[in-house]
Amino acid sequence: DNFDETNGTDIARLFEYYGIGQNLIIIQLFTDIPRYLCWSYILVKLPISLINKIVKIRKHTNEDQAKHLHLTREEKILLHSSTIYSVDISYVRNLFRPIHQRITSRLFLAHLIPKFIYQWRDDFRFSSRILCVYSSTFLLLFFMTIQACILVIPYLDELQHSLQQLIDQILTSSDQQNKQSEFPLPNFVCPYVFAILTALIVTIIQLLVLLTNIRRNLFQIFRGDNSEIPKRDKSKYLSYSTGNFHFAGFFIGYLTWGYVLIALFALIIYISIDAFITFGSVKLLEKILKIIIPILLLILFKMYLNKLLARYVFLQYHGDILAINNRRVLMIFLYFNFFLDSFLGFISSIIRIIKSIIGGCLYMSRLDYSPMGRKLETFDAGFSAYCGFIHMEAVHRNPIMLVTASYLYRHMKVKQYMTKNLIMMKNDNKSSKDYSSKAVQKWYLAVLLLRNPSLVFLRKHALSQIENKKLKTLNEINKRQSNIQEKFRRSSLVSEIDL
Prior knowledge:
Blueprint: H1 8-18, H2 22-31, H3 33-62, H4 73-80, H5 87-95, H6 108-112, H7 128-151, H8 156-171, H9 189-222, H10 237-279, H11 283-312, H12 327-362, H13 381-396, H14 399-431, H15 437-451, H16 460-487
Helix pairs in contact: 5-14, 7-9, 9-10, 9-13, 10-13
């Protein structure tokens, strides 16, 4: 009774189109690949995390809790920034090196990717948020592509038949109903599959370009370059924060719409091409091309004519210097050119709208690109969300700030640990009754002097001995000098007795 309410007709249509058995199993496996990937990650990651947690707990219980330095996860991440092989410290090192002297990445993947496509850098890592968002987007793209190919293809024949009837009713009159259709539609399966693949490829390319732009924009903000991202303004801190909230959701939404729009435009183009290939001639497309092609040829002719005149007539030294030549001829040309450009300007405005629509559809998944233009880009909610995300990332992931804070925090923690251990040692010495505190101190002193022999010469006894030796040597030197002076002294004519 509930067959139609539970989408039974759709399932029956899928069975009728694809059949049962091996084909059905393959289709089900393809549709469930994202689910299997997520479950496999969870099944592998959770036991590993649990085992690591148990090992850490047992390690902490076996160690002396009082003498062990406890650090939170955030403290460990911050202290890692000042280690030798950290990403942040390598970025700081590269600041003092020329570009040609920077160490290239040693990863195998970095050598596989050509540098003109993507240059791998060891001094930068994307945040975990970016990795999570991109992993979810790729899974979403895979899911949308598989579902679009499996669920929609069985309905394409009916869609073609209904669209053909609608086009025939619109374009043909009652007298021409028995004649050939002006726009015969080919089979939709091949154009549809190619359109879906085109949308997938274009969207993936846009995602990869956006990934490289995120890194470039972060580097620009790190060094204070505001050429692409607007300068940070104190009055817009709340908008940056809210934009950071919306970044992931807007990214998924814009990506989905961009994928759908690219697929629709590609489907229209592929259907037109397939109609020409299948039927040889399509009257409607021929009429449209007869109108468009002469206008485009006129625009191209006018454009190249202007370039030739500008180079060889109206600019000095054939365009090498931006200085007007033949000023009178230029004024006459501008007067007559005004009327032709008025007509071409009307056509150019239509082309501008078409280009903006096509560009907006192609770049819909790119939040770093605003189709509104440079001065109106702040009105774009997607671009504002991207700017908020970039500013928040730059504030909290600046390598110079992280290295400096990590270095200072490390020294502070070391001092705290040393003072804590000294206090504990003093308390232990006071509480112990079996051993003398002086004896323990002497043993500690002996161990310290054995491990650091240079400190022996800095002790009081050594310093006093050195001073005594210096005094003895000075006395000996004085005695020698006095003896020498007595030997070479002249005898006086008046003796001391006479005085």
